[in-house]
Amino acid sequence: MEANGSALTNKYSEGLPGARYYGGNEFIDQIEELCRKRALEAFNVSPEQWGVNVQPYSGSTANFSAFTAMLAPHDRIMGLDLPSGGHLTHGYATAKKKVSSSAIYFESLPYQVDMKTGYLDYDKLEASAALFRPKLIICGASAYPRDWDYARLRKIADQSGAYLMADIAHTSGLVAAKEVNNPFEFCDVVTTTTHKTLRGPRAGLIFFRRAPKGEKNSDLEDKVNFAVFPSNQGGPHNNTIAGIAVALKQAASPAFKEYAIQVKANARALGETLVKRGYKLVTDGTENHLVLWDLRPNGLTGSKMEKICDYVSITLNKNAVHGDSSALVPGGVRVGTPALTSRSFKEADFVQVAEFLHRAAQLAISIQATSGKLIKDFIVALDKSEEVKALKADVE
Ligand code: PLP
Fold first, then answer.
1. For ligand 1, which residues put their CB under 6 angstroms from it?
2. What ipTM did this prediction achieve?
């Protein structure tokens, strides 16, 4: 926060260290160099094999710059569908509208999770990719509680000569701590936000594989750097880059490894308690930092659960669950453990969090039974409920 709120915000520095379009960047260059070095160290990759651009303003612009580097207009891409847990920027379109610029400028064929199990359906992805022959396969998600099989994805990408890109925005802190599978072993490009499990300021990073001249990927460095500036951005936010450098130093520390282990243990405790209480989680559990809670068996929407949680001082968000009939009526909520783990919560604390969530869900069910299905009537009933006030007092 100190770096982010510093005078570094005042300096323009279009270009890269040592090759700027502005003077006066001696110290800005040092900061960006330090940030790049720490980014490679935090993810345990060597500067001979990987490079990184630390200038993307955020995750979405990092992704679009990566696409600009690897693709031509109308090239084919495959990413995880949003209702399956994927991110908007991975080619999201509805039946009626191309929503993300990644679907407007490229031809997108999303892949899905298995509708019964909620797990990624690699066989189906392989069969679709063999027909569609994408130029790029994107893996990574915003709401997927399980790990990724990067080796399998590499094989599928190779069958069509496609690039493989991992967007590890959600799990990058767990990747840095080696608490989930390592996408750097198999991918050509890795993007991430810096503000989720990595616990830094809001921004993005693009890692690109290096290769000797003439080999596949030998041109990625120039293409990625050019795609960030001048193709998609102007001056980098130097205050943010300094903040990322601080976060990356922390991410490489033994304390961060402990944090990542605790984030996962807490998510497991939260998930197990909800399952014990009879609720349905997507894939019946988690092996990362979040649980995706399917509320449809309880007759609730994600919106109502989010609303009652707002009333009782619990912050979470409504989220689509695979099989939802409309993305406008998400059937679940997504609950993550990183923030409360930063505030020293352990497994027993998350059992208590789950008990509060259980009380909130039961209250929502009983309030809905009298208020009816409309959210506006539900809110009126929430306002009046003494039990909601009592739960809020207990949570606080
Ligand atoms: N990629 C993934 C997987 C995400 O979950 C998100 C944000 O939620 C983004 C990219 C976009 O990041 P930003 O909101 O910083 O543009």
1. 58-60, 63, 87, 89, 140-142, 167, 169-170, 193, 202
2. 0.99
